[in-house]
Amino acid sequence: MSKTNSNSTGLKLNVKRTCLIGFAFFGILLLWQVYDSWCPTFLTDIFARRMYHMSSFELKNSGQDSQILNVQWLVGIIMACDNLAALILLPIFGSLSDRTHSSIGKRMPYILTGTFVAAVAFPFIPLFFHKNNIVGMVIMMAIVLMFMMMYRNPAVALMPDITPKPLRAKANGIINIMGYFGGAAATVLGIFLKLSDYINSADEARNVWTIEIPFLIASVLMVISAMVLFFTIKENKLEEELKDELKEGERLAAIEQPIDDDKPMPAANKRMLLAILGAEFLWFMADNAIGTYIGNYVIYFLNSSSGKTMILTILGGLASVIGFATAGTIADKIGRKWTISSGLCLTFAALIIMCFARPTGVVVGANGEYAFPTILFVVWAIKGYGMALVHNCSFPMVVELCSSKKIGKFTGYYYTASMSAQTVTPILLGFIFNVSGVWHALPIYSCILVALSFMMFTALVKNIKAVKVANAKGLEALDGDD
Questions:
Q1: How far is the CA of 433 from the CAs of 165, 280, 426, in angstroms?
Q2: What is the rounded average pLDDT of the residues 237-253?
Q3: How far is CA 25 from CA 7, 18, 152, 176, in A?
Q4: pLDDT per residue over 265-294, tens digit each?
Q5: Is residue 7 part of a domain?
Q6: 468 — alpha (psi -120 to 50), left (phi > 0) or beta?
Q7: What is the residue-wise DSSP string for 150-207?
Q8: C-alpha span between 203 and 141 (Å, rounded)
Q9: pTM tops 0.85
Q10: Domain containing 439 — which CATH number?
Q11: Is residue 415 in a domain?
Q12: Can you tell me the mean pLDDT for 216-240?
């Protein structure tokens, strides 16, 4: 079924305001980029010490690479715990923020509290690791993650709160681009402060500031982004000013059946929701597997510099920015369903290529590191663009199926699917590594899951096009919106 309307809707996306909302996502991706890039390797090294009484550097250089693979299931369990916490806490904070009424809005109290507590605790993670204190490190990780869960759902729900439904795909592209600026800031730090230099050093030569500085800078930038958001986005005032536009957006929503909060969710809408969430679960299993283990894959399998992981991340991020910038326009032409399906196809093609990557054997580093396989740069660019198309359109499809009164709750549904996937996948893949004993189980695993998500999504989700609306352009986009 498609919905068409040749008349002008009068709805226009305010780019300036959407960019300011994007500062919330800037803080989210900044923290997760640092966390996902550094913490799995911290855990690998510290578990190697506990189990084999040798650092991962000593194991690798003594030819005992299999022992490093054997600890990945423990790394997976710890990395999955944050997602398990998210699975529980994100829906709770989403529903709580839906029902919150305060002088600074319903989302802002959670955003500010979560940001400040997480920012204070975050720099203690590398400090405890440096001291070889696994208990302290895991406790700090838990504190950071719990308060980021308080922050994450309300921060993401803020965009659809004050953006009419037909405009959300393009608005989601903008806030994701802002988020990738945050991820890029963390990645640049990783290029100059190489985790592999720290890991590949004897204990007495390890400089704590190599791993401490990225966490400190991330904390400072998170606080700054939260303050920019607080001082520029006045939730209560904007919701009042935009209530007519939001009401018009409800009328133009890309859904099969109209939404009525006083009645049960229509069966057609419920089927659509479950199909989207099911496919989302599978593609997040695939994507999170790569994100969790790519650092270890580069250091321990490709025997290359961790700085190359950061370059991969930058390339993927740049490709993602292009994807987020173009996904809304593509969705206007072919619909969100086929935009997502195209992104999954591109991601699958990239991962197929990755299956054939191997260590180059060409020594280039002072620590015996190998040259990096150039083909992986191409893989990351294709995968980054493809997954941007997927992520850009999937969240708006979920919140399209609820009214403005339940955005936090439905954001919780979206994150329940993604976080449950990210809870399962590090543990499952860790066990696969342990059983198979091969690092290229990583791209094969992700390929299979992307293929399954594509089949589920294309078979069960209908392509309902949103009404085409305009974007504010030029000076009009910079009009005051306070």
A1: 43, 24, 10
A2: 77
A3: 34, 11, 8, 7
A4: 778 888 888 999 999 999 999 998 998 888
A5: no
A6: beta
A7: HHHHHHHHHHHHTS-GGGHHHHHHHHHHHHHHHHHHHHHHHHHS-HHHHHTS-GGG--
A8: 23
A9: no
A10: 1.20.1250.20
A11: yes
A12: 89
Amino acid at 359: P
In degrees and rounded to multiples of 5, residue 481 shows phi and psi of -135, 20
**What are the structure tokens assigned to 114, written together?**
């979560």
Axis crossing angle, helix 134-161 with helix 15-52, rounded to the nearest 10: 160
Give percent above pLDDT 70 in the chain: 86
Predicted confidence (pLDDT) at residue 338 exceeds the cutoff of 80: yes
Tokens of 254: 């890309």
Three-state SS annotation for 12-47:
EECHHHHHHHHHHHHHHHHHHHHHHHHHHHHHHHHH
pLDDT in tens, 30-87: 888 888 888 888 888 888 888 777 766 666 666 666 677 777 788 888 877 766 777 7
Q: Which residues, 6+ apart, have CB-to-CB distance to 86 below 8 Å?
A: 145, 149, 152, 415, 419, 422, 423
Please give the residue range of the domain that contains residue 324. Answer: 16-469
Instruction: Please state the domain count of the chain.
Output: 1
DSSP state of 6: -
53: helix, strand or coil = coil
Angle between the 72-98 and 108-121 helix axes, to the nearest 10 degrees? 150
Identify the pLDDT of residue 199: 76
The whole-angstrom separation of Cα 90 and Cα 379 is 32
Q: Quick one: DSSP state of residue 453?
A: H
Asked whether residue 10 is assigned to any structural domain, the reply reads no
Domain membership of residue 4 (yes or no) is no
